[in-house]
């Protein structure tokens, strides 16, 4: 079993002057961990794993309450949940901070290593000092975020397997990075423009894409609005204010500056958000986009998902700087680094970025630190290059370490502490999503292929002579070999 119990669960520093209390804490934690380990070792599925994790969280919470009341009665200021000393993300390591601070290059003197903003720790407990920046999140919105992350997760599992079975040609997952897309899109307005890279399924689902719509696109059937002419996952929707995914890395970024500029000149208060990976950030287009957006005060949110890898390239072969954030500062825009596996921090940072973009009329950069759990795509074998060592002792490998810190687990624990979430709720959402995903795959595969004539539509009002010649040639070809193209039987439409 790959999933491991987080060995570093809970950050309860020994409280000053109270060794017996800290010894009791340590003992309680040891017991909780061993209970959970026992449950996990006999676990055969997600429900058991979740139950085990939650058992420990409950123990941690009980202990936390005991510490709190002891501190209160003795009048001692006891740090309850300390900040994790340093982040261990592949792409940049620095201190964590609960302060929602965008660094202004024109005002602040910036530290050599930017801190990483987080509100909840690795076990989903609010970090000390997080109250001020905690976004006011209603239960309904929190539930919607959780459901969306889970639905992304389940949908992606089914379609990843479908690719392995040869049912679709290509797929990639956002496993482990769900909070980047969901936390940021939930902080924006439905009319703000989105210019995705390709790992932002959460943004599509949040904006109302159904499983069936995505399945139609993946299966390239006649219900796909792009008539199967795009690579799988390269979708978009004008009504939902999402521009099409483009394969040419980085091109979304200058477009985002342009879209935001047009919103500004039209007097609209819409903003544009563009997502890009740390690998994509090496494209010249990204630097051009950052500069032009800063110079022209375009209300653009540049959202960099730093997940440690660009296909097989580890970040240490991508840059030697402190991650990607310094580039925002260099081009003159307010910049923040955020724990991308903390949905609450991502949401708070994006909300603030939107405020800055609209009220100060300038772009912002958010560098969200995360980890790519899956392979780059189904065309990739990550066993060839993934770092074997975990960033902390006690873990099988790097991937296992990060899987245990997945945004779904962390946010789930945070919700559970509020009484908003439990194992049964999670299982119900997962089960329903799996059912829906399988049904959407089957329905999409049973739907007819696009008509052959759609190869020539939607770009030119009148076909140029070059395409007209290709049209005639295809028509003749299909007529000569009708049996070879039975799924293009509609050649008569040409
Ligand atoms: C201009 C361009 N160069 C190279 C590629 C091939 N390519 C596709 S994805 C990718 C890696 C991108 O990594 P990153 O931006 O970190 O995003 P991630 O896949 O990690 O989410 C590369 C090199 C491309 N699609 N476009
Ligand atoms: Mg990457």
Short description:
The chain has 494 residues and is of the alpha/beta class. The chain has helices at residues 19-41, 46-74, 139-164, 178-185, 201-206, 211-218, 252-265, 284-295, 325-330, 343-359, 398-403, 407-417, 423-446, 465-480; strands at residues 96-97, 116-117, 193-195, 272-277, 300-306, 309-310, 313-314, 335-339, 364-369. Thiamine diphosphate is lined by residues 199, 247-249, 277-280, 283, 305, 307, 309-311, 372, 376.
Index terms:
alpha/beta; binds magnesium ion; 494 residues; globular; binds thiamine diphosphate; 9 strands
Give an overview in words.
It comes from Prymnesium parvum (Toxic golden alga). Keywords: Oxidoreductase, Thiamine pyrophosphate. There is one protein chain. By secondary structure, the chain is of the alpha/beta class. The chain is 42% helix and 7% strand. It is built from 14 helices and nine strands. It has a five-stranded parallel sheet with strand order 3-4-5-9-8, with helices on both faces. The chain has a two-stranded parallel sheet with strand order 1-2. Strands 6-7 form a two-stranded antiparallel sheet. β8, α10 and β9 form a beta-alpha-beta unit. α6 packs across α13 and α7 runs parallel beside α8. The longest helix is centred in the N-terminal third of the chain and has 29 residues. The radius of gyration is 24 Å and the shape is globular. Bound molecules: thiamine diphosphate and magnesium ion. Magnesium ion binds next to β6.
